[in-house]
Automatic annotation (TrEMBL):
Belongs to the ROT1 family. One of its GO terms (cellular component) is endoplasmic reticulum membrane. This is Protein ROT1. The lineage of its organism: Eukaryota, Fungi, Dikarya, Ascomycota, Pezizomycotina. Residues 1-16 form the signal peptide. Keywords: Endoplasmic reticulum, Membrane, Signal, Transmembrane, Transmembrane helix. The keyword DNA repair does not apply. It comes from the Eukaryota. One of its GO terms (biological process) is 'de novo' protein folding. GO terms for molecular function: unfolded protein binding. InterPro entries: Rot1.
Length: 239
């Protein structure tokens, strides 16, 4: 009797420990300039803040939530005067599979992307962003060179991402619940525009389709420009 209770307790404990504690915290690439949280993306005003340097950041909680922030420059050697840049934010839930893989499931309506291609568009393009991810495996270690706690994430094909270092623990994150349900219109506030429904933001792949059809829908690009103007303070180009 006593041993079966003990067995039940330990089984319960094992089930509760689905989320690895070694991942908990905010991790950032070497520059430590791009970090998750409200300093990167402000969901109330639909606004990105440009970090001082490019980089990526992931945060994990002890109860299965994650958030990610990407700020990347896209090199354009054929036209160096036309640098492209991208800021992406999403959050959701993650789980560690029995085989060690991490499965990341974003809240699809919440992710956002700001894409800048100054030679193709007059304004940066603001869209929804939804990309689920799978990491084949990960390791947490102490970097022998700088003595920092280091996270290596390996992509689905086994190739390593750039190393991430522990920047903050507990993690710095926005609320982990759904921020922008599809049916919600823009909340009030002097700077927001009541005309724009978030559900009308297209997904990012639509933008790239638009680009390949050579601005066929230039009217909607202009519309995004208007939206950015209305929400105020949003960068147009970040180079
Ligand atoms: C681990 O499991 C996940 C889902 O269960 C699967 O998608 C993934 O391919 C597996 N990884 C390896 C390395 O077998
Ligand atoms: C988000 O992406 C996932 C897979 O990547 C897809 O199954 C899902 O339908 C997408 N959701 C929306 C709202 O686009
Ligand atoms: C490395 O960090 C640990 C704790 O974070 C500290 O105790 C140790 O002294 C450090 N070692 C070096 C060589 O700085
Ligand atoms: C990274 O930045 C955060 C926030 O500014 C700071 O608290 C932390 O100490 C930094 N970490 C490293 C390793 O420089």
């Amino acid at each position: 009797m006593v041993s079966s209770i003990a067995l039940l307790l330990s089984a319960g404990l094992a089930a509760a420990q689905t989320f690895p504690v070694d991942l908990v915290g905010t991790w950032s690439s070497k520059s430590n300039a791009t970090l998750t949280g409200s300093g990167f993306y402000d969901p109330v005003n639909e606004k990105f803040t440009e970090p001082s340097l490019t980089g990526i950041s992931y945060s994990f909680t002890s109860d299965g939530h994650y958030e990610e922030a990407y700020y990347r420059a896209i090199a354009n050697p054929s036209s160096p005067e036309c640098p492209q840049g991208i800021m992406q934010w999403q959050h959701g839930s993650f789980s560690k599979q029995a085989n060690g893989s991490l499965v990341m499931t974003p809240i699809a309506v919440d992710g956002r992307q700001l894409y800048s291609d100054p030679c193709a568009y007059k304004t940066a393009i603001y869209t929804r962003y939804n990309a689920s991810e799978m990491f084949d495996r990960y390791t947490v270690s102490t970097d022998s060179y700088n003595n920092k706690t280091r996270l290596d994430l390996y992509q689905f094909d086994g190739s390593p991402m750039m190393p991430l270092y522990l920047a903050m623990s507990p993690p710095e994150m926005l609320p982990t619940s759904t921020l922008n349900p599809l049916t919600t219109s823009t909340p009030g506030g002097a700077k927001s525009t009541s005309k724009v429904k978030r559900s009308e933001l297209p997904l990012n792949h639509n933008v790239f389709e638009k680009r390949t059809v050579q601005m066929q829908r230039a009217d909607s690009v202009w519309w995004f420009g208007m939206f950015l103007t209305a929400s105020g303070g949003v960068l147009y180009y970040f180079f």
